[in-house]
Amino acid sequence: MKGKIHRASVTEADLHYEGSISIDRTLLEAAGMVINERVEIYNVETGTRFATYVIEAPPRSGTISLNGAAARLAMPGDKIIIVAYASFDEAEAKIFKPRIVRVDRDNRILAS
Questions:
Q1: Has residue 79 got a pLDDT over 80?
Q2: pLDDT value at position 18?
Q3: Is 20 tagged catalytic?
Q4: Helix (H, G, I), strand (E, B) or coil at 64
Q5: Of 9, 73, 76, 90, which is the most exposed, with the fewest CB atoms less than 10 Å away?
Q6: Residue-range domains of the chain with CATH
Q7: Marked catalytic residue, from 17, 53, 61, 85
Q8: What pTM was estimated for this model as a whole?
């Protein structure tokens, strides 16, 4: 695991937007995630797991929007976990520290 945004609240689900997840830039930076990066989404409410890619939402907006087909897999208000993974050789893996960002119900950072 490279970075995680833990228990974010889905703010929007836009079926007619091109696929992706829009994430508040402040959260992206805190979790070490980048635009177009593949992320895994775990829906805490339903147990659904799926992958998509990241696009940026305005900083400090609290936006977590599932777009396109992913909009069918979570509803506004659902709690989700967003995880980015990376590959490391054994030496790197031993010293790497993932960025874990915990947020409140409005997707403001509580701890990282």
A1: yes
A2: 84
A3: yes
A4: strand
A5: 90
A6: 3-87 (2.40.40.20)
A7: 53
A8: 0.95
